[in-house]
Amino acid sequence: MQSVLLILLVISLGAWSATVQPPPVIQTLSASGSNGIGPEFQVTEKQDPASEDAQFWRQVGLKQLSKTIEKAKRAKDSSYQHKAKNIIIFIGDGMGLSTISAGRIYKGQYLKHGHGEEEMLSFDEFPFTGLAKTYNVDKQVPDSAGTATAIFSGVKTDYGAIGMDSTRSTTNASQGRLDSIMDWAQREGKRTGVVTTTRITHATPAATYARIYHRDWECDTEVPQESVGIHADIARQLVENAPGNKLNVVLGGGLSPMGAFNESEVKTVQFEGGTETICKRGDNRNLATEWLQRHANDSKEAKLVYTREQLLQVDVKEVDHLMGLFRNNHITYSIAREEGEPSLQDMTEAAVGVLERGDKSKGYVLLVEGGRIDQGHHQNYARAALHEVYELDLAVQAALKMTDSDETLIIVTADHSHSVTFNGYPERGADILGAANLHKPKDPMVYETITYANGPGYFDHLANETKPANSSNVWRALKMYTKEQIESPTYRHMATLALKDETHGGEDVIVFASGPGSSLVRGVFEQNYLAYVMSYAGCMGPVKSFDESCQRHLSSAGDSKSKSSAAALRLTLLPLLAAWLIVQLL
């Protein structure tokens, strides 16, 4: 019996050791395939990114639009044909589903609305949702440049690329250039604007107006020698080239790349991370004042503001072009807002005020980015990141109050997710930023509900010299942090892999939509499809003529305007006619 067991043990060990080495092929479970296991996928050479160029992704977008409309027709649902005069797209940078869920609870607990779990974000109420696949052409987990280009241009591209497809070149600025929703809108006579809590030259806002090989080229000093004289830096493109120089609203941070560095800027809280550094111009140009001079010559009123007080004093009904630059770098995290900085809600309200012109305009397209959700996560600043979700929620609420839901399409989404986790078994109503298992005293360690797969929080929570004797626990006990430390904006939640900068996450992001055209947002789709939703709903860009719905809409709008004009004329003439008759009778 012992010899049989020994033989079985040897066989088992042999079988186990044979699986230690990486298998030559990858197999998946399936009903068919050799050995009853499934199809084999051979490791292949990396696909040439140039094969997924603009033409490729435009076909993907058109196919998704056709499929969605066809499904609506079969269901006898014609709501997809409703057209939007105005479009506002909110990007919560890095606002993946875990962040939304945690942010919702944070909002409820911050406002003391009960336990927190039952709270709702303003966009939770939107009638249509979908899931967007976020990968870049060359990356499984994306960055903000490639994802923003997909959302605003309808073409997926490489990691780091702004407004250019995968055929981009460092020595040819024309190769791979793309148009964005701002180009499309301006061609239709719509007003346009960009609002962000990051630098105005940062990846997401830049993708609405710039075409450049790499997102880091925000200043002239960042453009590499081989591209100097070929690629103009992002800040220059904002002021010199369309659609940037035609934007009616530009609000955010970024005084430094614009050449308007504020030497006396105050920084009360010292946040860390690569995003806290910023380039300076080397050409001695002040692009902000150049922008003002260009628009001052247009005979329409233009304003350049630097503080919240100046922003609130702007007569939005009279100003045609508004630029606000409020920090050298990004606008400070809202949880530690500096004096003189506007909120995202302030900027959104000002932007809508400048863009909205009623019957005097053909509508507008506006980007509003809550950009510091992402940057908070990168440094494992969970409290700062979740407060930025609340900040975005307030901006969405403001837009909903200021706009007509029958003529304004509002989309809320993220560009990508993060490696943040919402985990453990915390009790109902537990502090979302607190410990997950205080109610389980037998657990080997107390851990937080919000933790990260990687990032600098690893170093902050490593036990080092505080490790108890004869303990296998390498983490510093949570009780060793004071309440003041944990509630600080710069407190980092624990990360289990040591990185100086936490990474993005690769899962799909949720898309919320409300207003005309919102029913096109449904199911799972490639992220670039969102540009086609805005194009079709807004009667602008590549699918304006996809079918006859835009033509019918524009014709009916013209008829309505004619009828309104005729009615107004009658109202004007009737009193005059009555007065004339009275005179004649007398």
TrEMBL record:
Q: Which SUPFAM superfamilies does the entry mention? A: Alkaline phosphatase-like (SSF53649)
Name the family the entry cites: Belongs to the alkaline phosphatase family.
Task: Cite a single Pfam family from the UniProt record.
Answer: Alk_phosphatase
Endpoints of the signal sequence: 1-17
**Species lineage, top-down?**
Eukaryota, Metazoa, Ecdysozoa, Arthropoda, Hexapoda
Q: Which cofactors does the annotated protein need, by name? A: Mg(2+); Zn(2+)
Enzyme Commission numbers on file: 3.1.3.1
CDD domains recorded for this chain? ALP
Chloroplast is among the record's keywords: no
Q: Establish whether keyword Metal-binding is in the entry.
A: yes
The UniProt keyword set, sorted, is: Hydrolase, Magnesium, Metal-binding, Signal, Zinc
What name does the UniProt record give this protein?
A: Alkaline phosphatase
Q: Which reaction does it catalyse?
A: a phosphate monoester + H2O = an alcohol + phosphate
Top enzyme class: hydrolase
